[in-house]
Amino acid sequence: MTQTNPPQVDVDQLRLAVGDIYRGVAEQPDAEYHFHTGQAALDHLGYPRSLTEPLPRSAADAFAGVAYVFEPGLPDTGQRVIDIGSGAGADALMAARAVGGDGAVIGVDMNEQMLARARAAADEARLDHLDFRQGLIEQLPVDDEWADVVISNGVLNLVPDKLTAYRELHRVTRPGGRLQISDICVEQEVPEEAKRDIDLWGA
Ligand SMILES: C[S@@+](CC[C@H](N)C(=O)[O-])C[C@H]1O[C@@H](n2cnc3c(N)ncnc32)[C@H](O)[C@@H]1O
Question: Is there a domain that residue 102 lies in?
Fold first, then answer.
């Protein structure tokens, strides 16, 4: 693998800008954004209604993922799953139903407003084996080799230091475990100047 240096963007400023966007989504999910949100996005991306209808509205309304992350399959009963950048918790809730009470799911997000929605949804759905933790993808608050499956939906594109992020994903996944990642990719080299432009990261 070719190792490239992380872009010289101001990471603290970028996190503040990303935090502003997703605080907005958590507080006003019906406002206009440059991406699809909520039930309309879940339908548009192909999530089956059998998975989305049982979701508490607080989670479904602020969904902001970019694809149907369980398209390759749902986790099995009894498995341990981490949702990296879990947002309002829709995918984590679906995973928690799939693994059942013998499994466990941890959602990690840096955004308090998103975490509040996700925790309220987990309480409403009475899913005691679903835990939402505040933290950074670059420093996950999860033990080594804890997960059978790691999912992430629309998040890694927001992280400048992708090598550190992927090292963390590797650290928390057990040998033989799997990653299911939905994200936005560009197929052309992005100029350094563009990488430093914080407005473009959230655009
Ligand atoms: C596009 S939203 C997707 C949320 C969720 N996966 C979904 O499908 O609805 C991106 C989420 O990633 C979180 N996030 C972005 N950068 C992060 C970082 N470095 N560490 C932790 N969370 C981060 C944001 O707070 C936001 O909730």
Answer: yes
